[in-house]
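Posting for a labmate who doesn't have an account.
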Amino acid sequence: MNILFATSECAPFIKTGGLADVAGALPKALAKEGHDVRVILPLYEGIGEEWRSQMTFLQCFHVTVAWRTPYCGIFELKRDGVTYWFVDNEYYFKRSSIYGHYDDGERFAYFSRAVVESVGWLNWHPDVLHCNDWQTALVPIYLLEERHRIPQLYDTKSVFTIHNIEYQGRYGSQTLKDLFGLNDGYFNEHMLAYHGDVNLMKGAIYAADYVTTVSPTYADELQYSFYAHGLEGVIADNRHKLRGILNGIDTEVYDPWRDKGLTKFFSVKQMGGKKNCKAALQQMSGLRENPDTPIIACVSRLVKHKGFDLVTAAIHDIMGMDVQMIVLGTGDWNFEEAFRQAQNQYPGRFAAHMMYSPNLSTAIYGGADIFLMPSIAEPCGLSQMIAMRYGTIPVVRETGGLRDSVVPYNKFTGEGTGFSFANINAHEMTGVLADAVNLYHNDKKAWKGLQKNAMSADFSWTRSAAAYREIYGWVTGK
């Protein structure tokens, strides 16, 4: 099967979040099954020379975006059995950051047109065009417009994945024709209309042949306004073609036995190296070097929907336990400031690193004991899976993919991979954290068993890729 995966970011080339990890791992898993998989993404300024030097120029042409006909160049790179196409246009993509610009609507409308038109210029027929989040939400709509004009798209089907419904691509109604090049029918028939505006994600949900999201629980949660951010009615209308598939992680990248970012390798059968990683983490982060004190870690964007209201409200209760704590990330100033103050108040026990650091995040996954992830909403979450892979026990709120991936510890049977709590409540979170800390201090054998359970959990993309392959078969009849 020929599969074209359209994404606004993709690891290892460019990454801001979990979408890049999915775009880097799922196509690779599908390619291993023998499918012809190609990934198309913008050629951002942030894509480094180490990748550009491996690219080959294929073709250039002009795409049609409403009344504009901007240049489009396509560069190709082949890696791990997957072909990557990079869309070159410096006006749109030579920017210091990949999102957050005043013209993002135009930038990703251009990219969506390039996705649809490139297959004709490159003479390749995709059976499935798999799109992701609002940045490619126009692709299923443009496919409806162009599949009869571009022979290579004649029987192509579209799949749209919602990674986070909070970001929908909402613009004023005047953008429909002038910016996106679509006629009034899309607005009058309500495919794109949303409270007088244009909503790109809404349009993609209606236009796509199938819609997925990144965990079964999140698919259920999207039927409720608390999680759907106004699109619960749209989800209800399209429930017949919606399925939640839990993301995986790239187990070759996240492997404590081979991860060169760790001080010492370890595995589920040889756990000794984790002690070395813990000592190194304490040393590099300014924590006291005490092997017997559990380290609670957070690696995240520091924003409200990640549950940091709960964490900041409970800092003193948490630090009242015999623990150390480290927080890595950037976000809202009030959370950053609360963690800086905690570092001052608890020297040698609390470390606040208000920055983005892949190297430190790897050290945290490898060296911490407990990983705190109290999200208010979490479509899937990858951090808890990575933490488990490195023997760091997650404490999570039961929402979205956190609920689907973390099995609560059962003290009577020894089963489980972590700890969880249900309500958005700081006291409940602190109580569950205390359970984890008590197990760490008072039952080393049970703690080691819990670590082995977590490290043995299968979060590879093999399972998820099979589910996507099944959906591709449904929509194409192949």
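Reply:
Got it, the structure tokens are right above this. The chain has a mean pLDDT of 96.
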